[in-house]
Each structure stands twice: as C-alpha cells, then as structure tokens.
Amino acid sequence: MTAFPQGTILGYPRIGRRRELKKAVEAFWAGRSDLVALEQTAADLRAASRERLASLGLGRTDSAIPESFSYYDQVHDAAVTVGAIPTRFDNLRETDGSIGLPAYFTIARGEGERAALEMTKWFDSNYHYLVPEIGPETTFSLSSDRVVRQVEEAVAAGFVTRPVIVGPVTLLALAKASDAAPEGFDPLSRLDDLVPVYVELLARLRAAGAEWVQLDEPALVSESLPASAEQLADAAARALAIIGGAASRPSILVAAPYAALDASLAVLAAAPIEAIAIDLVRGSVPAAVEGLADKVLVGGVIDGHNIWRGDLAGAFDKLEALGALGAAQVAASTSTSLLHVPHDVTDESKLDERLASWLAFADQKVEQVVALARGLGSGREAIQAELDAASAALADRSNAPGVRDGAVRSRELADGDFSRVSYAEREAAQAEALGLPALPLTTIGSFPQTGDIRRARAQYIRGELSQDDYDTFLRREVDTVVELQEDLGLDVLVHGEPERNDMVQYFAENLSGFSVTENGWVQSYGSRATRPSILWGDVSRPAPITVGWSVYAQSKTAKHMKGMLTGPVTILAWSFVRDDQPLGETANQVALALRDEITDLETAGIAIIQVDEPALRELLPLKKSDQAAYLNWSVNSFRLATGGAAAATQVHTHLCYSEFGVVIDAIRALDADVTSIEAARSRMGVVTDIAEVGFDHGIGPGVYDIHSPRVPTVDEIESLLRRAVDELPTRQLWINPDCGLKTRGYDETTESLRNIVEATRRVREDISVTA
Questions:
Q1: CA-CA distance, 7 to 162, in Å (whole number)?
Q2: Rg (the chain; Cα; Å)
Q3: What does the alpha-carbon distance between residue 446 and residue 575 come to, in Å, rounded to a whole number?
Q4: Which of 33, 246, 330, 526 could lock 323 by a disulfide, CB 3.0 to 4.6 Å apart?
Q5: What is the pLDDT of residues 230-263, one digit of tens each?
Q6: CA distance 480 to 501
Q7: Distance from CA of residue 22 to its chain's centroid?
Q8: Alpha carbons 46 and 365: distance in angstroms, whole number
C-alpha cells in the first residue's frame, strides 16, 4: 500500500472563484465559444486548484489533493464513464462507443423530443444530481476516459492526485429504473454487471499514475433510499471484494459522508481496501470493529457542509479518539467534499471583520486540515496556537451583539399560532372570494432575469443608478411581466420578482441576523450557482419587505396577484446557518418574521400568498431515527408563518426536485391551500403518490421542466395534464411550470407558457363536455 497523507480533503469547489466554469460552459452551449476553448478553461481551473491546494499545505505528490473536477455533476460523470445512458441518447455515442462532452451535456439538458435526465437533491444538501436511468437493457462499458486524462494532466504538471469517483453501489442506489425496465426492477440488481467496468477503470487510473483512488459511497450512510441499509451493505461487500481483489489498481479510499457509517463500518473494515473516510461531524467516533488494524481511518472532523470556523480543539479530540480504535493510521479530513462551501473568506472585502473571523470557507478549511495533520504527526503542542485561536473566535462569537436578541426571544407563542381554521372552511371561503376557473393557470413566481435586469442591478449596487431610476426600471419590468401574463391568459399572476437577486438572499438582506457575501458562490446544479447568506444571529423583520412591489403589481391588473415569500425551512436550507442552537429555534424566528409580512400583505389587499418551501425534503435527516423530530419542527415553522392568515386568504407553497412520496405526510401537514410541485421530468409520476395517500388540498403538478432549455409541445403537456386529471379530482388541480422561470430566456418561456395555455384549454373543454 502506498502511504496515505496525514491530511486531505474529500473534494474541492470546481466552478471557479469567479464562476469561470459556469461562464465557459454557458458560452459553449450558446455557441459563443467552441469545445477547445471550453476544455482549456476547464484545464486552467483544474491547474489553478491543484496549485492553490498545494500552496495551502496539501502535498503535491502524496495523493492528498483530490481530483474532483466535473463539468456538470459527479453522478452524471460516473454514469457516462460506465456507459449508463438512456437508449434515447444511444445515437450520440462516437463510432468507438465513447461519449464525448457535447453528448454528455445533451443527456444532462435534453434536446428536442428527448427529455433530460431527472434531477433531485444529493442526500441532505442543496446540491442537485442527475438521476441515472438503468434497466436490463443498459450495457455497461468504459465509455469515457476523462478522469484518466485528468490524472495524466496532473502527473504532467508534477502532481500525484487522487481521482474521486462515485462508487458503484451509490451509483446504482441513486438510479431509477429505465422506461424499458419491467415493473419492480431494481437498478441495484445490475451490480455484478457494473463492477467489472470499475475494475477496468481503476486499472487505467493506475497506469496513468494514480496511487490512490477515492470511491464515494454515501449511500452506505442513508436510510432514506429504496434499498435497505442491509441490502446496501451486502452490495458494498460484494463489489469491494471484486474491486479490492483486482490485480492492478491504486490503493482504495472509500468515503461515506453525510451521516454516521454505523453498521457498514464493519463491512468496509472487512473489505480488501486500504482506507475508510468517516463523517465525524454528522456522526460520532464509532466503536472499534475487527479489520481496522491494516486500514487508514480518515476522520472527517472539519465540517464540509457549513462555513463556521468551529471548534478545532474538539476536532483534534475526535482524531485522537479515532486513533484509539487500533487502525494502522489516522488522517485528518473534511467531513464531505468542499463543493458545498465557497472558495475563500479573504475574497469578502465587505463582510464585517468580526463576523469574518468566525468563518472558514474552503481554503480556510484546508488550512485547518493541514494544521490538524501536523498535530497528528507532531503532537497537540505543535498546533496549540491554532487550537487556541479557534477557541477564542468561538468564544467571541457567542458573546457578540446581535447573536442573542432579547426582543426576539421574548416573543411568546401559543398553540393556536400554528393552525388555521379547517381546510373545508377555507376552501369554501376562497372559492367565493377568488372566483377562479377549473384548472387555474399560474406560474411559480419568478420570470426571466434578463441581462438588462442584471446590468441595472449591478449599476445600482455600484452607485451608478439612483434609487429612483432603479425603481423606475423595476416598475417597467413588472409592467412587462403583468402584460405578458394577461396576453397569455393566465388566471393568477405574479410580478416576476425583478427586484430579487435570489429568493433567499433578498430576504436575508431585509432581515436582521443575516449577512451576505460578494463572492461566496456555491454550485447548485450544472452551471447554476447560488450565494448562500450567512445567518449568524437572532432574526427579526425591521420593516415590510415585499408589500410595496406586490401592491404595485396588483394595481396593474384586475386578476389576482400572488404575494411571493420564501419559507422558513428553505431560508435555512439555502443559507449557512448558525450552529449554536437547534435549527427549530432558528426556523421559528424566521417564521415569525414571515408571519408579520403575511399580515401586512393581507392588509394591503393581496388575497393569494405563496410561501415557497422547495427545500423541505432537502434537510430530511438520512437516519430514520432523526426524521420525526425534523419533520415536526420544519412543518411547525411553516404553520407558524402562515397560521395567522384569514380563511379567505389562499396560501400556496411550492416544492421542487424532491422524492415527494418520502415526505407526502409532511406536505399534507403543512396545510397549505395549494401546493405546486415538480412533475415534468418524472412525467407526472408523483400524482400516483398523491392519489394513493388521499391528498385532498389543491395541487399543482408541474407540466414544464424549466431546468431544460427545450420547449415542451402542446401534445406533450396535454398528455401530462390528462394523466393528472385521470388520477386526481379536477377541483384540486392547478396548472403551472415545475419551478420559477428565472433561469430561462423570454422566447422559450413565452412559447412554453403559450403551449401550457393551449393544452389547458383542450383539457378544460373536455371537462366541460363531460360535466
């Protein structure tokens, strides 16, 4: 076994410090650049990352630096590498059977009549992955050598890096059955056919110069997948017995982040592999098991999920406890890949210095790992200064003004604050007050954020555009969006949200207890990135936030205008949240601020208010024993936010890219009058779950996949609508896209919405005739 480094990380941000990859990829998609330019940008980013990590203290030639780059998504990378692509894309293969980069993007995004792969959340993070489609017809073969070429690229530059690949068990466990698969088919049943391709890939990586390879197997920590923990552990034992027994391979590190490894640790300890990475932020130091004497235990003690500097002394304590388990070596690491955090806190010139001293972005976390590694090698005394500095920052944070606000904490809650009158009473009151047609047409909230909008916002931020001129510009945008919806024939309108840079950051900028970043970009999916806000203190609402724009938009139409709010769970999920108190307490503070906003919207005459909770499923703990407590506080925070609304006020919510069957009871418990959900990529499969559980509130299963550039045809939308009408009562159904339209262009948006209106007209006619 080649020696393992004393410190490493499980992955590094890959989009670039200024989103260089996003810009290069989108330029390629738009035809503004060619494949050569895109690949050069990607190579430059990889080279810069290696050099940066080496400068921070990770070794150049000891496999400490992970080779974790992706053009779009690591799950998609693995699926394409082993040839697991849907048959509808088979003609995109090269003559030798390989899958090139243009085809890789087409499979991810869809093209013409060929739908893109479905997308959903990566475990309990805000990262989205593309769901592989695997059936009996899937032919596994080594179809891409990109990861091999990246290792060769690193070697040529003087680096020996550690390639990171999604492991075979996780790849199959996250996959869905292909359309051609028989009912009840389990992709995990193809494990024996898939593993030989991994053996071939590892041999190629060894020949290219890789001394270690990292197989990511987070499926082994989850109890929320279709396969049971026992099935996954058995699959891992079978797969690793073959992979580990291969004649030519690098040393193998199996990483199992995002929760405690539990019983699967014994499986990995018994497997013929060399190292195991354990998440000690989400899990605790385990008990000793047989088989560790010849293993490296990689302790994930630095939080890869959040941006707090944290308790470095406590992290070192965990590493010392890990050393007591009898492993051959203990190494320091991050708990997860650092793709979940921004690059560098020193890029933030406008953050309060005191707040910045409490933070650690990716580069600072690397420095923490390097310090811990030095402590493992030379003893605690060698890093006592670093431990003391982190402890001092932690103490300063706990005592800083605003972290605890007596006025916020003294606000009393009663049981009645968490509920409204019965749904039957609300449904009758809303039917009389709103007068909407069958199958009401609406959108989720945002309209395209055009280049003009982004430029005007940037000019306003730089002081080149006055407040009055900026407001005038925004009012013209609202006028345009309202007029377009009127012309298309939508029934419930939105103002398009041109004033909002982000659905969470906009609220963070208007609530106490939050700060925002300049360059804190984090990949969400593909080329999309967000800047999570930092929730560091107690939360309150100094003044109304959305009321003025909602009232202005309502003045431009006789139709109902939705007020648009982001829900408390989503604000938490898409922010970096304080870790010094239970999440439920923080969620209730946000909920009370939103409750006050809803009261002001009602007073201003807004009769329909949407409180988006797309992240409800996202934060669901991976361990079943933790799920009930999470669902209790998350549902209650939504009910606290909306519990003061009058019976005639229609409360909507929106959820997207989640496995809704898993949390359908929680969705019902939210008690929203109307819930809109993603359904287009799954081709309306979710309505079966909804029908089976007897969900009786309003529901808007999406008919337009806004995460793909393709425009759905009228016939395609009509077929989705008819499936929904066949399975659910018409009185419940709303018609809407899957999600907000912010990321799309106006041409495709207008054409798609026009097709939705026409498809709805056809279905409404049949309903009318039947009635």
A1: 13
A2: 26
A3: 20
A4: 330
A5: 999 999 999 999 999 999 999 999 999 999 999 9
A6: 18
A7: 16
A8: 19
Residue 771: predicted pLDDT? 47
Q: What is the C-alpha to C-alpha distance for residues 755 and 265, in angstroms, rounded to an integer?
A: 52
* Count of beta carbons in the 10 Å neighbourhood of residue 266: 18
The DSSP code sequence of 294-357 is G-EEEEEEE-SS--B---HHHHHHHHHHHHTT--SEEEEEESS-GGGS-S-GGG-TTS-HHHHT
- Strand, coil or helix: 678: coil
Question: Cβ of 770: how many Cβ atoms within 10 Å?
Answer: 8
Query: In this structure, what token pair is assigned to residue 233?
Result: 């552990």
Alpha helices in 619-709 (DSSP H): 624-642, 664-670, 686-692
Beta bridge partners of 36: none
Amino acid identity at 453: I
Tokens at 428, concatenated: 């009758």
The full 3-state SS of 80-128, as one line of letters, equals HHCCCCCHHHHHHCCCCCCCCHHHHHHHHHCECCECCCCEEECCCCCCE
Q: Strands 575-577 and 560-566, how do they pair?
A: unpaired
Encode pLDDT of 665-698 as tens digits.
888 999 999 999 888 877 887 888 888 888 899 9
Please name the amino acid found at residue 548: G
Query: 414 is written with which tokens?
Result: 């009663």
Q: How many other CB atoms are found less than 10 A from the CB of residue 262?
A: 16
* Distance (Å, whole) CA 265 – CA 277: 10
Pairing of strands 128-130, 119-121: antiparallel
Locate 151 and state its tokens.
């290792």
Instruction: Look up residue 640 and give its two tokens.
Output: 């606290």
| Tokens found for residue 190 | 């193809």
CA 602/CA 769 separation, integer angstroms: 37
pLDDT at 214: 98
The position carrying tokens 């019983």 is 263
- pTM equals 0.91
574: left (phi over 0), alpha (psi -120 to 50) or beta: alpha
Distance from chain centroid for Cα 367: 26
DSSP state of 441: B
The beta strand positions in 667-726, using DSSP E, are: 674-677, 698-701
Let me know the angle formed at the C-alpha of 32 by 27 and 33, rounded to the nearest 5 degrees: 80
Mean pLDDT throughout 104-110? 95
Position 78, amino acid: A
Neighbouring C-beta atoms of residue 438, cutoff 10 Å:
15
Ranking 154-158, 482-486, 547-551, 620-624 by mean pLDDT, the lowest is: 620-624
Contacts of 613 (CB under 8 A, 6+ apart): 567, 569, 570, 638, 653, 654, 655, 670
Q: Higher-confidence residue: 687 or 397?
A: 397
User: Which secondary structure element, helix H or strand E, spans residue 195, and what is its range?
Assistant: helix 191-208
Which residue has 């002081």 as its token pair? 463
Residue matched to tokens 């849907």? 86
All residues at 6 or more sequence positions from 575 whose CB lies less than 8 Å from its CB, including other chains: 504, 508, 514, 532, 533, 534, 535
User: Is the pLDDT confidence value at 356 over 90?
Assistant: yes
Instruction: Evaluate whether 533 touches 575 at the Cβ level (below 8 Å).
Output: yes
SS3 string, 4-67, reads CCCECCCCCCCCCCCCHHHHHHHHHHCCCCCHHHHHHHHHHHHHHHHHHHHHCCCCCCCCCCEE
Is 305 tagged catalytic? no
